[in-house]
# Entry
Amino acid sequence: MTLFHSRLTLWAVLAAAVPGWSANAEKPTDYFAYVGTYTTGESRGNYGYRFDARTGKLVPMGLAAATPNPTFIAIHPNRRFLYAVNRGAKIGEVVAFTINRDTGKLAPLNTASSHGDGPTYVTVDKTGKFLLVANYDSGSIASLPIGADGKLGEAVSVVQHHGSSVNQERQHGPHAHYIHLSPDNR
# Structure
């Protein structure tokens, strides 16, 4: 295993590996899996793998889409779109991709602001109509509409959290990490 793939494996754990859709809808056994990476050194963005659920074998497909620092990714419920938060720029962004059902490659659809600094988490609600993003550095969260074509619209809500913790040196302000939707999609 090369140093690059060793680092990629580590980044997969740290930056969230998300399974894709089944290539065989009748009897799902073969899947695409995607890994977002920090784009330092040799890494260039989102990487794809083929996963065989019968054998557990994971085969690298290489770069699925070049994008800067896709630190967390989410798959749309219809399994046709992938969303990635790009961390690193002062104001974060979310990128929408379409998934090629034959090759697993990702094609960019559009980019939208995460409405905060350091986006660290993204999820799609159960209806597939809204994307929710958590911005760690600024402590804000936002919801963006998703069109039928998978493209992201401008945020319909942005919530800026306030406050700090007992460790002022490290936690001088809020740090949104995660958004969990309840079973009834709230």
Notes: The helical segments are 3-15. Residues 1-24 have pLDDT under 50 and may be disordered. The CA atoms of residues 105 and 140 lie 31 Å apart. The chain is about 5% helix and 40% strand.
